[in-house]
Amino acid sequence: MIPYGKHRIIQADIDAVARVLESDWLTQGPAVEIFESKITDYCGAKHGIAVCNATAALYLAYRALELGPGDIFWTVPNTFVATSNAALICGAMIDFVDIDPQTYNISLLDLEKKLHYANKRGQLPKILAPVHFSGQSCPMQEIKQLSNQYGFSIVEDASHAIGGQYLNEPVGNCKFSDITVFSFHPVKIITTGEGGMAVTNSTSLAEKMKLLRNHGITRSPHEMTRSIDGPWYYQQLDLSLNYRITDIQAALGSSQIDRIDRMVAKRGELASRYDAALCNINVVLPHRDQHALSSWHLYVVKIEANDLGLSRHRIFCSMREAGIGVNVHYIPIHTQPYYETLGFHHGDFPVAEKYYENAITLPLYPELSHSEQNYIVETLMHLLSL
Ligand SMILES: *Cc1c(COP(=O)(O)O)cnc(C)c1O
Fold first, then answer.
1. How far apart are CA 70 and CA 359, in angstroms?
2. In this predicted model, what pLDDT tens digit does every residue of 172-198 receive, in sequence order?
C-alpha cells in the first residue's frame, strides 16, 4: 500500500538520536532547548515551547491566553478534532466559522459577518484559531485586522504548515497572531515521532506555557511568591499536567529541521506534477493563494459527482483496492456525535459539509517516487473514465 503520508528518516537522524541515548539525559533537557531555538530561528519567532504533541501545544496556548469557563472559542469545522477539543477541555464554549470554498481555509466573509452579529449580542470569541489547511496559510493580515477591531486573540494551528510562507515570510513568525502551533507527528512536514511546539513573540505567554508544560511548577526564584526554603525548593503556581517532550525526540527534530527546505521543495515539486497530470480531467485541483506558499502537507482534489453517479466513495474504495492509501481530510467536526451532544447539527456549516462529500487526499510525501505517482494518476484517471 502506498500511504497518504510518510516520514523520512536518514542516517543523520538515527545518529542524532543515538547520541542522546548514549548521554546522561533523556527527558526534557539540553536537546529540547536546542530544538526550540532551531525552530524559532527557522520561523522567526522569539520563543519556542516544545511539548509532547501539537494537541498539548494548542491546549497550553489556549490556557496561556486564559481561555476558561464562560469564554467563547472559534475555529473551522474543516480541521482535526484536536483544534477544538483543546478549547473544550479548557471549559470554553465553542463555535465554528465555515470555510472558503476555494482554499478550504477559514472564510473571511463568514468570519466578518459572524463577528458583526456576535458583537451585537455581546458574544465575541476570546480566541480564534485559524487552521492553515494542507500547509497553505490563511489570510492572516485580514484576520489580524479583525482581531484589532473586535479584540480577540489568535492562535494559528499551523500543524500542517511549518516550512510554508505567507507574504514571503515563514509561517510561525507570529506577525499576525499571539501564538502559532506546529505538529511533528510522522505524517507532518518534519517529525519527532510524537511532538509539537508553540511559538510566540510574547515573553509572558512563553513563560506561562513553560510553567503549564511542567505541572504549573516553577524553579525560578523570580517567579515565586516567597523566598525559597532551600536549593530543593519549587513552587506550584497553577494547575496543569506533564506535557514535556524528551531529548530523544528533540534530537530527531533538530536533525530533521536541517533538511526541511529540501523536503518542502520535494513536496511542492510532486504537487506540481500532480497538477500537470490532472489538469485536464474532471477533478478540482488545490487552489494556490497568491499570498501564500504551501508546505504541501496534503494534496486534496475534489471529485464532483457526475451524471454517471460516480461518487467519491466509489473512487476512494477502488483506489484503496488498488493499493493506494488515499484519505479524507476532514470529517466536519460539528457532525461528530460528541459535538452533536453540544447542540451542533448537520447543515450548520454547509461549505465544509459539501467539501467533505467530494474531497479525497492523494498520497504525498518526499519519498513518493515518480512511478508511484504515475500509478496513482493513472488509476484515478481510469476510474474517472469508467
Ligand atoms: C495533526 C494535527 C493536530 C494534532 O497534532 P498532534 O501532534 O498529533 O497532537 C492538530 N491540528 C491539526 C490541524 C492537525 O493536522
1. 35
2. 999 999 999 999 999 999 999 999 999
In a 13 Å sphere around the CA of 151, the CA atoms on its Cβ side amount to: 6
Q: What is the pLDDT of residue 311?
A: 85
User: 43 with 256: CB under 8 angstroms?
Assistant: no
Say if CB 271 and CB 294 are below 8 A apart.
Answer: yes
Q: What is the 3-state secondary structure (H, E, C) of 11-57?
A: HHHHHHHHHHHCCCCCCCCHHHHHHHHHHHHHHCCCEEEEECCHHHH
The rounded distance, in Å, linking the Cα atoms of 350 and 340 is 15
Cα of 195 from ligand 1 centre, angstroms: 10
Distance CA 140, CA 172 (A): 11
Predicted TM-score (pTM) of the model is 0.97
Q: How far is the CA of 119 from the centre of ligand 1 (A)?
A: 30
If one residue of 4, 59, 85, 185 were mutated to test the ligand 1 pocket, choosing by the most ligand atoms within 8 A of its CB, it would be 185
